[in-house]
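Um, can you check?
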Amino acid sequence: MTAKRLYQDIARKIVVLIDEGAYPPGSRLPGERDLAEKFNVSRVTIREAEIALQAIGRLEIKTGSGVYVAERSPQALAALPAASAFEVTEARLLIESEAAALAAHNITDAQIERLAELVEQMASEDNALSDEADEQFHLTIAAASNNTAMVHTITQLWQMRDQLPQVKATYDAVCLHDASARREEHRAIFEALRSRDAAAARGAMREHFKRLIGTMLDATEAQALAELQQRASQSRERFMTAAKLG
């Protein structure tokens, strides 16, 4: 089972326990170690499952306190806004850059090791595995910030990135052709975090998103030009057809 399917499977099992009343609303989940033993997986997998469940409103991760079952149901959560890929990326630039700076002060050795693994996974020729490593890289940094509000905001931005069709299509089109640059940018972020250098971590994250926004603009301009050329070609064909008939 892939890493993505494994943590998703664990997330589903936790949801079943919540719905069955084993963990009622407002209650604290057992610790990572206990859950890892219960489900026979690593603590990293438990952490990824909990982050995923926080993103959809089933759990609340409270730094220094633990992980709690959300009081309100997912149905009570607001629908995702109709944001553009540029808006999502701009928000990510602003928020994730500061999350990286915070993470530089708070990141653990285990999280550093996890980021190193994810950077290597991003070199995979399997696009699904590489994309999953990308997402977990950013969510691990969010968790390392030790700021619950930032973790929640960043997971919501990833939900918008993955679930808003137009945003996902834009990211898929751009990320398909920039794998090498993306991997090197993530390596620079990792190196800054390993050095516990907040300014460098913030700067590396900003450069990553600035380049991504630039690539999106280039892709949009190219698409607009292609559409213009197609309309011009269609108009030319109509004119030639009309000229022949005349």
Notes: The two ends are 67 Å apart (CA to CA).
